[in-house]
Write a structure and sequence with these properties.
Helix content is about 40%, strand content about 15%. It is α/β, with parallel strands linked by helices. A seven-stranded mixed sheet has the order 4-10-9-8-7-5-6. Strand 5, helix 6 and strand 6 form a beta-alpha-beta unit. Helix 4 runs parallel beside helix 11. The two termini are about 45 Å apart.
Length: about 400
């Protein structure tokens, strides 16, 4: 190894050791097999409480056969960006179907939710007068703001306390009252999730809509963890098709959804008003420089849209399991957050969270220890994801193990 390579390797090794000491090192286990709510790792069968496969589709044999038939009937690759050789008929049909189902004029698909948020934020908000964001938005949104060059100490960007709509309204008023903030109509955007991926709490969409309407703000809501699992027919919490109070336009202006969680596939999509798709297709790097969705995958996504709509029984089971778990840990060793199928056990210390996750894994329970930078420093959590494939016995087993493990590690 040359001197330069050796120097870099040593520096990286020191940084890794520093991460281990602080309890921040990541070393995910190798998964050898997945079967419903269970998986096999290092020869051990574990109950999986780390998966975002909320409806159990990702390991459903019947769904796998559907996917196989789609790939048997359609090409497995689009082979180029949609701007190079045009968008395929299968993709056009898919995007029209998703837009109609969720109550929007247009839809655009992306290889991942990260790229979807990057495209929306960097593509649409460069000229925004103000951007208000929930401080617990997903990292993909936060990274997109950084790529946009927006800084919180500048006039255009401000975060508000997590889930605090009254604080958001104060920020919105401040932007509107700022001298010279805009010319003509203001361009103010609000960024939030609907079901927060780490906290597990849900957005009050009517309150957000009222605040946005009062201050003429534009809303962008990430529905990655709600789509498919929450709302009527799995439509989530924020789309126009869900918010039926007085108008079909009570939902978020733009919704970012994913196929890679409850819908049992991979990739993401953006629901939006008319005219936005053409603009993003011309300006957003993730569209311009990414290979388009394969025709076979478009057929899978279309099948998933109909399949998930009919899974009310799985959604009801998922909601019931969440209630059961919260009831069993209501007086548990650590505070428990979460309104739905994502639960966050507030451990605090990073090393303790890492040790607890390791101890649970030894007992055949796979739980994710979320640490900085995924969550704020010193506020580590055990993130527990429930799925419709779990049973009552799985929930009871985890709750009992958490109580015992927390006590043992606190005393050790």
């Amino acid at each position: 190894m040359t001197g330069n390579r050796s120097s870099l390797a040593n520096r990286l090794a020191l940084r890794l050791e520093s991460m281990r000491t602080a309890g921040l090192h990541r070393n995910p286990p190798r998964i050898d097999a997945r079967h419903g709510a269970h998986l096999v790792t290092d020869g051990r069968r574990c109950v999986n409480f780390g998966s975002n496969d909320y409806l159990g589709l990702g390991t459903c044999p019947e769904w796998q056969r559907t996917v196989q038939s789609c790939f048997a009937a359609h090409a497995p690759s689009a082979s180029s960006s949609r701007l190079v050789t045009g968008h395929l008929a299968e993709t056009e049909q898919l995007e029209s179907a998703f837009a109609a189902r969720f109550g929007y004029e247009e839809c655009l698909f992306f290889p991942s939710g990260y790229q979807a948020n990057l495209a929306v934020i960097t593509g649409l908000l460069a000229d925004a007068d103000a951007i208000c964001f929930d401080r617990r938005i997903h990292a993909s949104m936060a990274h997109a703001l950084a790529a946009l060059g927006a800084r919180e100490d500048g006039p255009a960007l401000s975060g508000y306390a997590h889930g605090d709509i009254s604080r958001l309204e104060q920020k919105l008023r401040r932007h509107l009252d700022r001298p010279g903030a805009h010319l003509g109509e203001p361009a103010i955007a609000i960024l939030t999730e609907s079901l927060f991926s780490m906290d597990g709490d849900t957005l009050c969409m009517p309150a957000l809509h009222a605040a946005a309407k009062a201050h003429k703000a534009f809303t962008i809501v990430d529905e990655a963890h709600a789509m498919g699992a929450l709302g009527p027919c799995g439509l989530g919490l924020a789309s126009h098709a869900v918010q039926k109070d007085t108008s079909r336009r009570q939902g978020a202006d733009i919704v970012v959804g994913t196929l890679g969680k409850a819908l049992g596939l991979f990739g993401a999509f953006v629901l939006m008003p008319a005219g936005f798709k053409e603009y993003l297709s011309n300006i957003a790097a993730p569209v311009i420089y990414s290979t388009a969705m394969p025709p076979a995958f478009a057929a899978c996504a279309l099948a998933a849209l109909d399949r998930v709509a009919g899974m009310d029984a799985e959604r009801a089971s998922l909601a019931r399991l969440g209630l059961l778990f919260r009831d069993q840990l209501a007086d548990g060793p650590f505070p428990l957050r979460g309104d739905a199928h994502i639960l966050a056990l507030e451990v605090g210390d990073e090393n303790r969270a890492t040790r607890m996750a390791a101890a649970l894994r030894e007992q055949g329970l796979l739980v994710f220890a979320a640490r900085h930078p995924t969550v704020p420093a010193g506020r580590a959590i055990l993130r527990i994801s429930l799925t419709a494939a779990h049973g009552d016995d799985d929930i009871t087993r985890l709750a009992q193990a958490l109580r015992i493990t927390a006590r043992e590690i606190a005393l050790s």
